[in-house]
UniProtKB/TrEMBL annotation:
InterPro entries: RNaseH-like_sf (IPR012337), ZnF_BED_domain_contain (IPR052035). This is Putative ribonuclease H-like domain-containing protein. PANTHER family: BED-TYPE DOMAIN-CONTAINING PROTEIN, ZINC FINGER BED DOMAIN-CONTAINING PROTEIN 4. It comes from Rosa chinensis (China rose).
Length: 147
């Protein structure tokens, strides 16, 4: 095996394992077509982080038996990362989105509004929303904080 790796290092058909692995898979439709999909451990880990954020799950959700079982069936070759890895990815994503938002808002005037209300359970809530008009005269808004 070592001989093959040394001699055929530059072989064009060789998979670049650093960037993931090319696998055959279905396109998800009923017809029997086969497509080549690029699989990457990093992409799967990022997708798990996005799932935790989008579904507002605790970081420990990736360590629950049901989720581990699902991942072992859906993607057997992927070793599910621990919650510490998910937290690190989340913090990187947060910093990236924060910088992206700062760049986007840098050339605009932003108006802030607050809204407060009390729930049926007598719990007080407040949300801070940013409003702006972009260069194409489209109004944009987004919640900055929800307390």
């Amino acid at each position: 095996m070592k001989h093959i790796e040394q001699i055929y290092k530059g072989y064009l058909g060789r998979a670049d394992l650093a960037n993931g692995q090319i696998v055959l898979g279905s396109d998800g439709l009923d017809d029997p077509t086969v497509v080549v999909r690029h699989w990457s451990k990093e992409v799967c880990t990022k997708a798990a982080t996005v799932m935790v954020v989008m579904d507002k799950l605790p970081f420990s959700a990736v360590e629950r038996p049901g989720f581990k079982y699902f991942c072992s069936v859906a993607v057997p070759k992927w070793k599910m990362p621990c919650r510490k890895v998910i937290v690190k990815n989340f913090l990187r994503m947060y910093a990236s989105k924060k910088e992206e938002l700062k760049r986007e808002l840098a050339g605009h005037c932003v108006c802030l509004t607050t809204d407060t209300w009390t729930s049926v359970q007598n719990i007080n809530y407040m949300v801070l929303t940013a409003h702006l008009i972009d260069n194409g005269w489209k109004t944009l808004r987004g919640s900055l904080i929800f307390v």
